[in-house]
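Example record for the data management plan.
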Amino acid sequence: QSFMLHQIRKMIGLLIAIVRGHCDEKIFSRIFTLERIDVPKAPGLGLMLHQVHFDMYNRKYGSDGVHKPILWSNYEGIIDKFKQEYIYRHIINTETKEESMLTWLSSLQFHTFSEREDAS
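Corresponding structural encoding:
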């Protein structure tokens, strides 16, 4: 359950740990088993959903005469401007102030990437 709840943060955390040499690719054979592996969660700051795709909806309903297709192309400029002015600025300002990624990176060395005991 923990992996599903924090899936993206754990995937990013594991990839960064591999790239920085804290573990190797062999970990992949263990993380998708029933073992509870110590996988670090990357900070959530900066992780964002870039785009939602409505391809299935558009194929099914977009040309039925009742519904309009959902397309982002008409709004790309507005979306990009919003991301630049608000989202990215917030991420940069918050990271500069709180240093959550920097702090997290320094904690990677303390992870064992081995089986965890259940917290009871």
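Summary line stored alongside the record: The radius of gyration is 20 Å.
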